[in-house]
Amino acid sequence: MAVTALEADLSKYVAASESGQGRLEILVRGAKCAACLAKVERAAQAAPGVTAARLNLTTGKLSVSFGSPRGDPAAVISAVEAAGYGACLFDPAALKSAQDAEGRRLTLALGVAGFGVGNVMMFSVPVWAGLFGQEFTPETRSLMYWLAAVVATPCALYGGMPFFASAWKSLSRGKANMDVPITLGVLLTLAVSFSETIQGGRHAYFDAAVTLIFLLLIGRWLDHALRIRAQGAARDLLALQAPVARLIIEGGAELGVPVREVGVGDRIAVLPGERVAVDGVVEAGVSDIDNALITGETQGAPVGPGDSVHAGALNLSGRITLRATARSEDSTLANIARLVEAGTQSRSRYVRLADRAASVYVPVVHALALATFTGAWAMGLGPREALLRAAAVLIVTCPCALGLAVPAVQIAASGRLFRQGVLVKSGAALERLAEADVVALDKTGVLTEGRPHLLAAKPDELAAAAPLARASRHPLAQAVARAAGPGPSAESVRETAGLGVEGLVDGRRARLGRSEFVGAEAQAGAESEIWFRIEGREPVRFVFADALRGDAAKTVSQLEARGLELLVLSGDAEGPVARTARSSGIGQWRSGLTPLEKVNAIEALARAGRKVLMVGDGLNDAAALARAHVSMAPGAAVEASQNAADLVFEGGGLMAIVEAIDVARAAKVRALENFGFSALYNVVAAPVAVLGLVNPFLAAIAMSSSSLTVTLNALRMNWRGGKGAWPNLAGFTRR
Fold it and tell me: Which candidate in 7, 187, 513, 592 could, as Cys together with 517 as Cys, close a disulfide (CB 3.0–4.6 Å)?
C-alpha cells in the first residue's frame, strides 16, 4: 500500500548510494505535460537537502537525489502535493493499480459517450429533416429536443469528466490548457441548447456536445494506452534479472533467496542454463556466457576465475561461483533499465506546435468571447442574444481543427506505413523522424542477418564434424550442424565448459571447440572460428561470418541520397564491424561499444545539434533506442528493443527505413499545411461570429467543415503511393 506524507518517519525509504548520496523514488499522479514536469521538478528541488529531481511522465516516477545518505521524503512529498499533484512513495503495485483505475475510468467514459452519440441521433435526425421544409410542428421539435437532452446531457457530463477535471486543475494553478476551451465549449453548448429548448428556439446542439466528447475521449484513451506500453522496455529488461539467487552460506550449503537480499561481497552459485542474478566476479569454475545484453553478440564468451560477469547474462555450459560486486538495484542491468526510462522521459520534452499555439490561442479566444458578450449587451441586445453571439464565437473557434491538424496526418501516415510493413507506436515519432539527419545502425541483426554462417568448408571435413556439432548448443557448433543438414549425433558426448565438446564419431575420439582444446595453433584474425580434430587426423579450422542483408547497400545509398549521414555503432569486434561497414558503403563505424557507450555516442551527437535515428535489435541497443531522437527496430528484435523503439518494421529488409523517412517528411508538410489553414480559418471566422453574422447552428457547421478540411488534407497522404497489400505480420514478435 502507498505510504502517505502523514506518516512520521519515512527516512528509511531513502537508499544510500556508493557515492554517499541518498536516493528516493516517489510516485506522482496528475502530471501530463511538459509544464507539469517542470513544475514538479522545481517543487521537489526546493525541498530541504534535495540536489536533483527528475520526473518520468510515462511512469509517473520522480527520482530524487539528496546531498547526504539521509533525507526527508515527507518534505519532498509535501512540496509536490503543494504544487497541486498527488504524491506517495513509489510502489510498482500502487502504480499499476492507479493506471488500471485510470484505464477503467477512460474506458467507461468512452462507452457512455459512445452510447450517447449512437442514441441521440434518433431525435436529432428528424429535427434536421424538419429544417428543410418537411411537416414538423414546434411542439414536435421541442419534444425531440427534450428527448435528445435526456440522452445526451448525462452522457456528455459523465464522459467529459476527464476534461472537466483537467481544466479545473489547470485553472486552479492559474494556467489554461487545451481542456479549458473544450470544457467551456461543451458546457456552454449544453446551456444554450437548454435555453433554446425552454424558449422554443429552432436550434439546439445536444448531439454536438456529446459527439465532441466522444471523439476527444478516443484520443485520450489511445494516449493512456501508449503511456502504458512505453513502460514495457524497462520492464522487459528487468525481467531478465533472476528473481532468486543461489546464496552460498557457511559450510558451502546453498540457499535460495530473493535477489534483492543479495549484498555486496556475498557468494552465489550460477548453474548452466541460469541467468546471473547480480554483477560479480568469478571465484571458481569456468563456463561460456551469452553476453548479448552487453555486446549484442550471441557467441558464448569464455569466463573463469577473476572475470567479471553482469546481471542478466546467460550461463551456457558450466557451474560458476561469483562474489557479488553490486546489489540488484545497482547492477548493470538495472542501470540499463534506468537509461531506457530516462530516454522515454526525454521524449516528453518534445512540445508539439499545437500545444505552443494553444498557450496563445486559449486566452485570446476566451477574452474574445467575453468581449463579444459584454459588447453585444452594451449595444442593446438582450442577455439571450448576447449569450448566443458569445456561444457562436466559442463554437466557431473551437480548437477541433487545430487539435486534428497533427493527429489526422499522423493517423493517415501511420496507416500508409502499416501497409508497407511498418508499425508506428506514437504520432510524435513521425514528427521526430522527419527531423532526423543522422542514422546510427547496429551491425548484428540490422545490417547483417544476425546469426553466424559457415564459410567455405570441404564436404568431407564438414561431414566428419557434423555429428559432434549436432550434440552441442554452442552457436558456432549449431551453424556447422545447419550447414551439414540432418544426420546422426556423436556418442559418449562430454562438454567442457569454456573449451568445447568431445565424443565418439565412427568409433574414434573427436573434439570440436577452441584451438587449445583440440591441440591446434591459434591463428590471428578477426573472424569467428572453431576447430575440429578427429583421432588420427590434422585439426580443421571452420570460419564463420554474419552475412550482410541483401538490401543493406541499396538502403545506405538511398539514405545518403536524402541527405542523411550514416554510421555503425556495434558491440562486436573491430574486424567484423569494419568489414560490414565497408561492404554496405558506410564510412564511419565504432566497435566494441557497451550499452552505455552507445548512449554516450548518441548524446554526443545530440549535443552537437544532430538528431539521431537509431536502428537496433539487441538487448544492448534498448537504452540507445530509448535515448535517440527517434528509433526503429526490426520485427525480429527482442521485445525490450521493440518496446523501446518508436517504429517497428518487418524484419525482411531495410528499405522500410527509407519509406518511413519519406512518409514522415511528407506528413510534416501536411501538418504544417493544416496549421496554416486552421490559423486562416480562425482569422476569418472569429470576426464574422463577433459581428453576429452567424448563429450557433451555422457556427457548428463552419467548425465541422474546418475539421473535415484538415482531415481530407491529411488523407492526401494515401492518394499517391499509399496503396498496397496488407503486410505479413508474422515477422512482428510483439505488439
Answer: 513
